[in-house]
Amino acid sequence: MRRDLADSLRYIFNQSQGLLTVPEISIQSFLTQLEKHPVSPLAFSFYCDAVLAIEKNDLVEASRWLNELVRFPVHPGGPAVTALADPTQDALARRIVRYIDTDPTITLEVFAPSHAAAENCRALIAGAFELLEAGDPEQAAEIRALLREIVLAAGAEDPKALTFDGASSFMLWGGIIINANRRDDELAMAQMLVHESTHNLLFGLCADEALVENSDEDLYSSPLRQDQRPMDGIYHATFVTARMYRVVQRLLDRGVLSLSSQEKARKELAEIRRLFDQGIKVVRAQGKLTPLGEAIMRGAELYMG
Fold this sequence. Notes:
The protein is α/β, with parallel strands linked by helices. About 60% of the residues lie in helices and about 10% in strands.
């Protein structure tokens, strides 16, 4: 993903023929850095804003976003766990919320978490990684490779309001957001990390080729959401449930769960299986999968079989 970002930026700057006012030395320095070191997920969002501005032929706005982009420092690696700042006061926090809340049919309320909630969530994340390292080190390594930042936030606490457990976005690749007010244990948090990092995995795999050819305007029943979703969302949800099943099964097989967690895990396996079966039925009945989408989903089907 970093290489492709660098290639796309080179193309943009070469084609701009000086119409984008970004210092050449800043461009070359950032591109060299980008190919050798991790980058903040926010860098992808500035790239997306710049491309959208170019499509509108607003080269002043595009130059502004690109100048912001090339000033990004080397990322220390990750995943770094940070608390979301107040979106009403902090521009980067507003940017994160804007790129997470991309569904035009719904509006998510996202706030900065309380200090207590953030610290409790940090501890759960650390415990989840310890569990994964003991029971599924391959999965733990994949999460650490995919994620640069885990942002802790808070959702609406009104039980009637629409809220979120976790979220991720192609435009913030390498980052996820977790609701720090969730009442989780380490097993549930391990599943959350697998869930959201798997979305990032799929985002990376489909950067050059879509997974499905269905129109985003056509909606279908989703295994993980009450509202109907485009087929791309159904595809993601179905593949994600297979990954969640796999990690819970491995933690059980490796004997790293407590007796109470083992019983909980077995119940959750049955529910995850039900969700996968529901999702794959919709995908197979109504999904128009690309060759890439077919190859990826076939692997999940073979595993779940």
